[in-house]
Structures are given as C-alpha cells and as structure tokens.
Amino acid sequence: MNLWGTLASVVGGLGLFLLGMTMMTDGLRLAAGPALERILAAATRTRVHALGSGVLVTSLVQSSSAVTVATIGFVNAGLLPLGAALWVLFGANVGTTMTGWIVALVGLKFKIEALALPLLGLGVVLRLTGEGQRRGALGTALAGFGLLFMGIAMLQQSFTGLAGQVTLPQGEGVLAVAAQVGVGAVMTVLMQSSSASMAIALTAAHEGLLTPQGAAAVVIGSNVGTTVTAVLATLGATSNARRAAAAHVLFNGITGVVALVLLPWLVPAIAVAREAMGLPADPAAKLALFHTIFNLMGVLLMWPLAGALTRWLQQRFRTREEDEAQPQHLDDTVLAVPSLALDALDLEVARMGHVAVRMARAALAGASPQELTRDQYIVTQLDAAAESFVERMNRAAMARPTSERLARVLRVQRYHQTTAQRVLDAAPLESSEGVAGGLHAAFVQQTDALLALCDPLAGAGAAPLLAAHAAAMELAYQDLKAALLAAGAQGALRLTAMEDTLRRLSALRHAAQQAVKACTHRALARDGLAAVEGAPSEARP
C-alpha cells in the first residue's frame, strides 16, 4: 500500500473510532436516563465522593466531555458548589483513562473482527427493535463499541504499513520530547478527542513507531490538548463555566509539567509497576498504566491545593451581577450591638430595593427576560445574605423599639423580594403595544415616574407625592385595561394576546405597588413610627 493509501486508511480508521465513541457515549447516556445527573447530584458530598463520581460516570459513558458539561450545568443551576465540581472534573480525567485500557487489553489482543462484527450486529438489532426504549439505547452503545474496535483494527493495520514510510519524532532530548508533546496536543485539537489521540499513541507504540517514552510524551500532549477544547467551549459562557474550564486547564497543565520533569524516571518506574502487577509486556499496556498513573498523580498534586484553588477561581471571571450580589454592609463585627446591626441591615435591604426597582423600570422599557434574570440573581443573593445576617443577630438583647424596627425592615425586605418576583413573572408575557399605543405609553410613563420615587438609593419621595403618582398610575392602568378589553371584544386583538398583555400589565402594576409599600414602610421604620397612615391604596402581596 502506498503512502496516500495508508494515510487514507488512517483517516478511515480514525473516523470509525470517533463514530464508535460518539455512538457509545450517546447510547450509554440515553440508557442511563437521568442516572448521570442523579449520581453527580447525590454523590458529591465530600471531595472523595465527588472524585469517585467523576471516575465512575466517565468510565461508564466513556466521555469526559459529557461529565464536564453536566457538572457545569449543576454549578450554574446552583445545585453543585464549585469546590465539589472541581473534584468531579478531576475524577473525569482519571475515568477517561479507561479508553486506554480498552484499547491495550482488548483492542490490540484479539482478532478485532471476531469481537467487533458481532457487537455491531447485535447492537443494530437492539436499536431497530427498541426504538425510543432503553433497549434501543443499549443497542446504540453496543454498535458504538463494535465500530470503535473496527476503527482500532484499521488504525493498527495502517500503522503497520506506515512503519517503513513515516518517522514520528524520536529521541529523549528536550527538543524531541517537546515535539512529541506537540504531536499529542495537535492531534487532540484537530480531532477534538483525547481518546482518539490515546488510541493512535497506543497503536503507534505497539507497532514500534514510538518508544515507550515517546508515546508517554504524546499522551501528556493529548492531555494538554484537551484544554484547548475546554477553553473554546467557554467562549461567551458563564463565569462558572469559565472557572471550571480554568480548573481543567490548571489540572492538566500542572500535571503535564510535573510528568515531563519526571518522565526519564517515571517511564522505568511504570515498567517495574507493570511487571509487579502482572500486566502484559507490550508497550500498549505500559502506556495505559502510565496514562492512569499520570492522572492519579495530578489528583494527588491537587489534593492539598484544592481549597486555595477554589477560592482563587471564585475571585476570577467575576461579572457585574456577582460583584453587586456581594453584601457591602453586613459586617459580623456589629452583630453584638443590635442597633448598629439593624442600621447595616437597613442599608443592605436598600441596595436590594434599588436593584428590584431597577428591574421594574427595565421591564417597562422592554428589557429581555435574560437581563431581568441577572438582576433577579442579585436580589436573591442579597435576600439570602440578609436572612443569614438576621439569624446571627443578638435578637434576645434587643429593646422593644429596636425589635419593632427590625420587623419593619424585614417587611420592607419582603416587599422588595415580591417586586422583583412580579417583574420576573411579567417578563416572558406578550405585550401588544400597538393596540391603544397612547394609553400604553401613558401607563409606562406614570409607572416609571412612580418607581423613580421609590428607589431607596435615590432618595424616596414624600408620602403625598407618592400618593399622587400612585393615583395617576392607577388611572392610566384602568384606562389601558378598558381599551385592551374593548379591542379583544371587537376582534382587533387576539384573546390570547389580550390575556398575556393584561397579565403583564397587572404584574408590573403590582410590582410598582410593592415598591411603594417598601418605600413607605422604610420611611416609617427610619422615623420610628408605629403605624402606616395615609399610604396609597395597593393590591395586597
């Protein structure tokens, strides 16, 4: 076979391997159903549990990418803390070494056709007879195994042909090792699969194209190459996704540097360990063992550094929302003095109210649900911080006036929370601004003016001014509501659109009313009054 024919065979074998990996991953993931998420959610209580979860799930689905995506999803949803997520990701790196053992102990030891073709046939039968069922998903996974082994067989045959035609970087000098690492990294970047790079390195070593140390350097390079994929995957992603990717880069980078420094001693030590474990004497088994020990070494390196790494990552890739969601006034040093603690709480609740009012005004201006969700995150975080602060306050030592003021501050906090929630309820609803456009503009104008008076950081308006603007908003709302009902009755507006618009307007009106209540009660709390008099009429929360 000439060089081009051999290269074509390599490309074809690689394609079968990658297709098999994809089918096997998708099939196992579908067959497991929600088990992947359940395992990750329930088994990350400690770093040992999280590490074991990453190893187990990645070994089962044979895709560290799938586990990484699921882990980041849990972090973004607030169900998995970043510290636990790091250990799942580190475990995924160890779990992905299973591919090397499959190739070394199965793929290169048997006549592949005897194993691959029956798996492929059985998988197709299960897939065709179990469409939409777990049996069908298992069939897809078995067919994937079959294609994977066929790809290994084709790669093995191709590298046998390449042995006399192509020379891969050889030697043990610095430049030679750097070239071998580069080959591994480039292959992984181009193929977007460290498993495929590992398979190529194993088969190349098995056929004598690479020395054991050279193949080990290629494996290190493939591990480093996966970081490029992770970085590309987080372009435009959330802060937590970037932190997880940074942890992946640091883990693979630090582990790779240490392994390269120790490489001249590590490879002979692996040979001794292989003999002690009774593994086959071929290079593929030695390389699979190196891949596993290499990643376990990374886990041991990270074990004492994980806490500091988590804290460092949490200070990186910060967004405006995360910075604004950090309390600025809740200092534990004032907890022992209830009056000072209450002053601090009042200031923090005012920040929460500012964001809630900003949300409402943004919704009136047509902000997207995504923009409003970011502000809702700030309100939620500040609300949780305020509640935790109140729990730690020395409430037993409070004088009665202080206790009464605390009750009013907590009521104001609740009003702010309801304001933000009602705005979020209104965000996804349709707004038919074209119908009764002038009345709609009047309602927006009156409501925005009222909300501007309710912003606790901008200086709240006096009660008579609030009452006048609240009455003007109510009048504009009733006029607009009547016009929308008339348009729906006359067929000028679809009934579903009318209902959505009315629900949206009602939610925004209620949000403004809650902001008025918060403004009024905050003034009363600061002045030490005992009752609410002369406040504008509002719907109850």
Which features does this protein show?
77% helix, mainly alpha, single chain
State the gist of this model:
This protein is mainly α and 541 residues long. The chain has helices at 3-32, 35-42, 47-61, 64-76, 82-95, 98-107, 112-129, 134-162, 174-191, 194-206, 212-233, 239-277, 283-302, 306-314, 320-324, 338-364, 369-392, 400-426, 437-454, 463-489, 495-527.
Walk me through what this model shows:
The protein has helices at 3-32, 35-42, 47-61, 64-76, 82-95, 98-107, 112-129, 134-162, 174-191, 194-206, 212-233, 239-277, 283-302, 306-314, 320-324, 338-364, 369-392, 400-426, 437-454, 463-489, 495-527. With 541 residues, the protein is mainly α. Helix 1 runs antiparallel to helix 8, helix 5 (82-95) crosses helix 14 (306-314) and helix 20 packs antiparallel against helix 21 (495-527). The longest helix has 39 residues, at 239-277. The N and C termini lie far apart (80 Å). The model is unreliable at 529-541 (pLDDT under 50).
